[in-house]
Amino acid sequence: xxxxxxxxxxxxxxxxxxxxxxxxxxxxxxxxxxxxxxxxxxxxxxxxxxxxxxxxxxxxxxxxxxxxxxxxxxxxxxxxxxxxxxxxxxxxxxxxxxxxxxxxxxxxxxxxxxxxxxxxxxxxxxxxxxxxxxxxxxxxxxxxxxxxxxxxxxxxxxxxxxxxxxxxxxxxxxxxxxxxxxxxxxxxxxxxxxxxxxxxxxxxxxxxxx
Length: 210
Description:
Blueprint: H1 5-9, H2 17-28, H3 36-49, E1 53-57, H4 63-71, E2 76-81, H5 84-95, E3 103-107, E4 122-127, H6 134-141, E5 145-153, H7 174-189, E6 193-198, E7 204-209
Parallel strand pairs: 1-2, 1-4, 2-3, 4-5
Antiparallel strand pairs: 5-7, 6-7
Helix pairs in contact: 3-4
Binding site for S-adenosyl-L-methionine: 34, 64, 81, 109-110, 128
Pfam families: Methyltransf_3 (PF01596)
Catalytic activity: 5-hydroxyuridine(34) in tRNA + S-adenosyl-L-methionine = 5-methoxyuridine(34) in tRNA + S-adenosyl-L-homocysteine + H(+)
């Protein structure tokens, strides 16, 4: 029996005014942010893990970064975003938060920027950027994850498209979905990580480094 959305949402507490403002801004401006059930799972897993450092691939307007920082007051978050307009929006919202000092935003394409000289290792990595590039993101940044660290990857379900036969997927999105399928298969076979998929929100993959 499927769990109703109303029952799922009954476990989610109201957010503070800033987060509510950001959620409304994202809705009105078609900015993709994590669905509430998924980010609540992510935050709970992070509370259990207690990472001291998190690398986020895909800042958008800073919603996830602010929520992670609020949940983990002692944690430093480095977030990479290539869209300069989104970076300015994220900085605006961060300036209104109580966690601005915890979050460092790096502007640039995550596949091109070089952060290794400044940040040698992370306890956790959160990937929520271009879905068709997930394997490239993973290959570039997984060497920075500590042993026992965790990589969290959102949007694995891709609004249900990942569950369709490729011929049923809109043509313009087939390459992205093909790449996402290949990445999922690759992670399942990756013996360096213990990976589990959670069908929450738009699909959250959690990978623990052995």
